[in-house]
């Protein structure tokens, strides 16, 4: 079956422009390819000053102005759409609720699922657009039968397919990623932006969570959930210290535990478990983090759902590597077994399955099986 990564006809394209260099170059490439492109910046906060300032976020007044200037240079219409209510409900409140429940969410993945390729895409289709274009580094291939597949970017160093693993068939049918099929460095993307006269060419990348203004995730959660002192214990239940809220910890965390008593072997301790029920954080040695298997819920497939057990590679973090797994659906949940133990796997994270470079789908980790104890 032959495949292509390019649309065969000009499309009406809505380009999501964050105000950064990647989305600006993506919009410019889409326009240069002959598509009828309109730029849109998403206003995601009712009070933009509460989000990141300067060039570090994607939700500020400055970013919307940068996006508008880029659209003017490209020569495309530009609008600002207010999706603040949806973003607060589907991303920010979900983020807080997940941490409160002792889980570790990925807000960027949730934003792609609920905002960029749900709320934004639905509005775009209602207005007669054919596709939504973003600056993500990933590829959508079109098979000869018209079916679509999501693949890793040509340049693995910049691949962002992990945070797009929540996209289903319908969303893939209307997704365009102009940066994903060329092997170019970020310096080359910036050089291209400069050649095109885009002022964002030298704008720093954003890395942190856009809706946490000062980068202090624990402080952000404390302001919304309140301080709640609890115990830090070892695997035997011995009390080692206290904390001000179990939500401030993640599985695998080593720094910031503030435990006065050193371990008997002198080695660092890591967070092994977070229990919101009794507000307790359990810590222990690194090898106690080894996970052999997991169960994940709410699977979403980038194509047909797999039938029967299969062998895949899996990615567990946005910037993590791949690991070999076997996986199968059991009563609607994804049961995954690792060929070799992995560490730092936390409920709430997404696991994304790959068949070569193709994204098979994703699911949310619900529980894990530890190698040492053989229990979740």
UniProtKB/TrEMBL annotation:
Compartment(s) of residence: Cytoplasm
Region entry Interaction with tRNA, spans: 158-160
Limits of the tRNA-specific 2-thiouridylase MnmA-like central domain: 219-284
EC number: 2.8.1.13
An example Gene Ontology molecular-function term: ATP binding
Coarse class of the protein's main subcellular location: cytoplasm
Reactions catalysed: S-sulfanyl-L-cysteinyl-[protein] + uridine(34) in tRNA + AH2 + ATP = 2-thiouridine(34) in tRNA + L-cysteinyl-[protein] + A + AMP + diphosphate + H(+)
Residues marked Interaction with tRNA (site): 136, 349
Active site positions, chain numbering: 111 (nucleophile), 210 (cysteine persulfide intermediate)
Enzyme class: transferase
Residues in tRNA-specific 2-thiouridylase MnmA-like C-terminal domain copies: 293-365
Alphabetical list of Gene3D superfamilies matching this protein: Adenine nucleotide alpha hydrolases-like domains, HUPs, Translation factors
Entry keywords, A to Z: ATP-binding, Cytoplasm, Disulfide bond, Nucleotide-binding, RNA-binding, Transferase, tRNA processing, tRNA-binding
CDD domains: MnmA_TRMU-like
GO BP, sorted A to Z: tRNA wobble position uridine thiolation
Residues the entry annotates as binding ATP: 16-23, 42, 135
One cellular component term from this protein's GO annotations in UniProt: cytoplasm
Classification via PANTHER family: MITOCHONDRIAL TRNA-SPECIFIC 2-THIOURIDYLASE 1, TRNA 5-METHYLAMINOMETHYL-2-THIOURIDYLATE -METHYLTRANSFERASE
Family note: Belongs to the MnmA/TRMU family.
Primary role: Catalyzes the 2-thiolation of uridine at the wobble position (U34) of tRNA, leading to the formation of s(2)U34.
Name the record gives this protein: tRNA-specific 2-thiouridylase MnmA
Gene: mnmA
